[in-house]
Amino acid sequence: MDMTELRLVPGTPSAVLSALTGVLDGSGTPFAPVPADRAAAERVRQAVAPDEPLETDDCAVVLGTSGSSGEPKGVLLSKAALVASASATHDRLGGPGQWLLPMHPYFVGGLQILTRSVLAGLSPVVAADHPSFSAAAGVMTAARRYTAMVPTQLSRYLDTEVEALRSFDAIVIGGAAMPLELKQRAAAAGVTAIPAYGMTETGSGCVYAGEPLQGTRLALDDGRILISGPTLFSGYRLRPELTAEVFQDGWFRTQDRGRLVDGRLQVIGRLDDVVISGGVNVTLPAVQARLLEHEGVGDAVVLGVPDAEWGTRVVAFVVGRTGQAGREELRDFVAETLPRTWAPRDVVQLDALPMLASGKVDRQLLLERLR
Questions:
Q1: CATH number for the domain including 329?
Q2: CA 360 – CA 371 distance, rounded (Å)
Q3: Which residues, at least 6 apart from 244, have a Cβ–Cβ distance to it below 8 Å?
Q4: Which residues form the AMP-binding enzyme C-terminal domain (predicted)?
């Protein structure tokens, strides 16, 4: 097969591990893992365009992004980027070890668990092959043991699998911001949970607990987080104009806002998390954080929705913890510490937030509920 061609492989742990081992040792060809779900698979195919020649000759894997806040894109990752990310992660955590895979390997977090496993020369343990997380952890044999998961998984396992969580030397938390309450719960339980910041374009997490991994550099441009280093992707599949837009002078310009506090990166939110509603700038993460402080709110997401009267209408999607807190109660609660003009205009009560397979909230599906 011509190395400029891209092959699709099933997004199962065994198939991805086999394909990944091939590109890492030089015997395989570039591939794109595809989930089993038909709709998700079709989005991946559109993003990775398997019938078109690859733009670069150093591509190892093409991953389709989840499209949680926009259209999916194909992300070109080289062998060098994958290896740099995996090696820097092991260096930060204290050395190579055995990894447990509790997530899908067609997302970068799961893919990199497999990359680290190949480099460590240790077989990964697939959580789905065992009746429980504890059972999966129980079959691990290496002296050093690691896993990675999204905050939602950690929260659930803290309720049911604490002993298993404690058995890991480190648990990398990515895919979404790790709430302060969750950090405190993990610490109180004796669980070593390390929040990581990164994305598909950075080869998975590249900043651990606010500090960049070896080789990664950070900068801020009017609050926008810029990243440079060996783990960065090569570009977007067949999107040279978008690639040129996000790569400038060797820096990847993310869509996230942040700040440096005592040399550590604090991620504040996405650039589009500040909306103008009725002429007032509203910081959506601040409203969301305040709602989560309400005793009756178990989970919440706050979005800006186009509105003819307000320009953008602030809408809160809320999962009740002990019954449903009403719209006016929640608006008043927000207004106790934030400007009244920031209080959500609408409150949508849900039994649970819709989640993508990546562990991120499906914002597009929430917006569709309002149409």
A1: 3.30.300.30
A2: 21
A3: none
A4: 288-360
Q: How many domains does the chain have?
A: 2
**273 within a domain of the structure (yes/no):** no
Helix (H) or strand (E) holding 198: strand 193-199
Picking from 234, 268, 302, the residue at the C-terminal end of a domain is 268
Pair 24, 125 in one domain: yes
pLDDT of residue 2: 44
Residues 6+ apart with CB under 8 A from 57: 3, 4
The yes-or-no verdict on residue 4 having pLDDT over 80 is no
User: Do 244 and 283 have their domain in common?
Assistant: no
Q: Are the C-beta atoms of residues 168 and 146 closer than 8 Å to each other?
A: yes
Measured distance CA(237)–CA(243) in Å, rounded: 9
The last residue of one of the domains, among 244, 268, 292, is 268
Q: Which domain holds residue 306?
A: 278-369
The predicted structure's pLDDT at residue 81 = 98
Mean pLDDT score of the chain: 92
Sequence-distant contacts of 350-356: CB under 8 A, at least 24 apart: 350/317, 350/318, 350/319, 351/319, 352/299, 352/319, 353/299, 353/301, 353/317, 353/319, 355/152, 356/66, 356/68
For range 334-347, the mean pLDDT: 93
3-state secondary structure of 101: strand
Whether the predicted pLDDT of 3 surpasses 50:
no
Q: What is the tens place of the pLDDT at every residue in 148-175? A: 998 889 988 999 999 999 999 999 999 8
Residues 312 and 254 occupy one common structural domain: no
Whether residues 260 and 290 share a domain: the answer is: no
pTM of the model: 0.82
Rounded average pLDDT over 49-70: 85
3-state SS, residue 144 = coil
Phi and psi at residue 69, to the nearest 5°: -135, 25
Can you tell me the distance from the alpha carbon of 355 to that of 366, in angstroms, rounded to the nearest whole number?
Answer: 10
Q: Give residue 54's identity as a one-letter amino acid code.
A: L
